[in-house]
């Protein structure tokens, strides 16, 4: 599967405006892509993709009010993607159209191993949230930590937390995009998160383990670690919860991890906090994450 990046340009910090009443339930910030997937024979089908887009569409389909903060190329592919995401019920007022050239991400499946090659513009992905937006949850999702300046993401997270917004970071690492970069630069972003979601594959790609990630996070934060067909674990001030997923034929369908993350964000938005002292909330969040990921696998 290939992913066409319809976004690039020098980044600016996302800004979450203070608000007495949330206008949205979740704000998703990150990259927006066209995924190119086989459609039988020699044809390909285009579908909206990228961690932030996948999560935003899933949240909108669940009935939540969700906004997308991203950047797209100001051209036919970018505008078509914008229209598709808007048609899914996502508020796209936070999407900037930037005159720039397209990038391309190619993902190959070879004997169960996945390899990603990136060809993209040199400038960084900009993130800009409209001043009037506010939400209980800000999700920084997808490959954006590799593409966007970490400092800009940290400023976005700090601004959100000052208004009481729960910051969720989905590492969703792609090791080829991190080639030559020290994964420890992520520590600054991890310190700003209330919730970090990652997979065992993410950590392996970054050369980190869950203890190192946990050590970089604030004591009040929660780490959610998924392991494919293995149990997902949530660890925080409430202790640790481990729940196995349903048995499915495949555990690595594209977008399954984003669906899991979206379910976590939905649970936090409905609860009004990230449940640092509530194991019941995290039990429900993991159960719903498993259900959402399994449904994604079934729809593939």
Automatic annotation (TrEMBL):
InterPro entries tied to this protein: PfkB_Carbo_kinase, PfkB_dom, Ribokinase-like
Transmembrane regions: none
Residue span(s) of domain Carbohydrate kinase PfkB: 40-299
Record keywords, A-Z: Kinase, Transferase
Domain of life: Bacteria
Pfam families: PfkB
GO MF entries: kinase activity
Presence of keyword DNA-binding: no
Family the entry assigns: Belongs to the carbohydrate kinase PfkB family.
Protein name per the record: Put.Carbohydrate kinase, PfkB family
Organism, as annotated: Sorangium cellulosum (strain So ce56)
